[in-house]
Amino acid sequence: MENRVYFRHNNGTSISEEICFYDFFDEYYYDNILIPIQQRIITNEKDYTGNGSLDEETISEYEKEVYDIHLELVIPCKNDPDLCRPYLSKKARQFLRHTGQWEELMKLENHIIHVDFTGYEAFVLSRLLFFLNDEQIAERINSFLPGRTFDDCKRFLNDNPNCKAQKCPIAIKVLMKGPEKSVQDDRVLRSNWITLFLQRQCGGWFHPRYSKSISNHIDSKIIQLLKPYKFFNRTSGDVVDLTFDPLGRKFAFGCSTTQDDYNREGNLVICDIDSDVATVLTDHKIIVNENVFYPTVSNVKFSADGLFLFSGAFDSTIKVWSRSGHLLNSFRDLNGKIDVMVSHPLNPKILSASSHDGNIHLYRLNENGLCASHVKLGTINHNLYGSAMAFGNHLLNHLLLVGYENIDESKYLGTAVVFDIMTETFLKELKTENTSHTSIFAHNFSDYFVTGSNTCKDGKVRVYTAKDWSIIIECYSSQKDINQVTLSPCLRYLTSSATDRSTYVWDTRKFDIPLHILHHDQTKMFYPDDENIEDLDSGTTVSFWGSYAHEFITGGSDGYLKLWDLGNNQPFVQNLVEVNSAITSACISPDHDLFIIGESIGHVTVLSTKGTGLPSCFNINIQSSKTIT
């Protein structure tokens, strides 16, 4: 320790009377606050301006607000001795712009090398300066500012002698530049332009808190103004899966086919919003004695960077396509039709699929879309197959949760299993009462997974925590065939949509009875009078969360897309659109400015604010590709 006094007391200053409240989130959960890894830190805290010291009068006025701040909102793991929140000086950060391919920096790939002092940390440091000397601060720094070192504090004070934190603090993480530009790069640039445009329209710069509020208000109004804009009706059958690319300018869909004279192409289509071209991809086909049969394409997914399109079909193959629709690769090492397929939410080169023989397949691709490795994660039981799958979020991206059903549909048996894709091993079988699982949902901002399971009479919705895979919420439902389960971004609402054309909504704080039951009207499908419609009808097949906490969207076999506000006692808001047949699938663009609806008669409709109610047809391009090697 140096003998000279580095920190100096400043007794003649006081905290500013104007305390800005940076409350960006309506709700927060302490266990899920993370060290920021993006350029901009958003923390749910009070931002303290001024140079840090308090006189007696100020202390009495602000004491409660100051000391009621929860440290977890700033420091995610205060009891973690390995927690590190390094601080680089301004000069060091300027030097980072000129490092090029500096080897020492490359060694720190995926490491956080700088975290700005937040307003709370600057305030705590100012109080330490006021009451303690250098040696006492060095001894107690880990208790008051977990993750910070004595040297971090010195560097911060060199940069900010008045002990003021930055109004918009940042964190810096080392990421190596990839070989190919992804559509995410364009999306970041586009988002910046959208922010600037919004500021201009609202009369200039405004605080991010109000920016978020204004954006949510605009988004909520936009979705109510969506009207039919484009359509496509040359499909092979029911539209069973829809997906947008990350930029929201291309979408693809897969369709079912019939095994009769009406079997035709149109089972896989990729559409470009900007060029108004729909490209029919015809390579999912079976040729027998010069007769061509087109199988059902059950799953379509874009990669996380938007460079690849994956399609899985009942011809026991998975195909990899470029964004423009050129066939790059075909995986033919599957013994059974593809029931479920999911692409990794972060790694664009990882794909997993379930085949009807019970195997779970894990593929890793190279940058050209060719297979770098293929692993079978195994089967649980020869009578069970994977019916629902979900990768974990950015915190749990090494986890894959799979729900199973019995091959014999009359037996409601199944389970749910967790795999580790990094070690390619089985981790755990969850407590499920051995019931059939039809839906799995991974929450984007927490360690929660949601499962929907069925018996012959009813269903159950369970929420598991990945910490120990215990059940933290279990809800009973009279629905006996669940289509989709979801958990709201704010973690307040749990939903279950089923074939009875209803959606159960529970408040996670009191989940013994449903908060709402959202009903759709009579189905547009025709069934014999003596049949139980719930056993045959698709019911409510679409459920999405909107732009703000309470906004929820459902679509069902009555042909309606409905908007709900779950925060109201009477949640129904309006019917967004009605189509001519049962809604079988839907997806919303990342910017929430486009909505795609797939129908049971094979129609696909694009809803947009540009729509006038009289949609125009996509220009059709039929393409048969040759594999690129």
TrEMBL record:
SMART domains: WD40 (SM00320). The keyword Repeat applies. WD repeats lie at residues 297-322, 552-574. The lineage of its organism: Eukaryota, Fungi, Dikarya, Ascomycota, Taphrinomycotina. PROSITE patterns: WD_REPEATS_1, WD_REPEATS_2. The keyword Repeat applies. One of its GO terms (biological process) is regulation of actin cytoskeleton organization. Coiled coil: none annotated. Keywords: Repeat, WD repeat. Gene3D superfamilies: YVTN repeat-like/Quinoprotein amine dehydrogenase. Belongs to the WD repeat LST8 family. One of its GO terms (cellular component) is TORC1 complex. This is LisH domain-containing protein. It holds the Pfam family WD40.
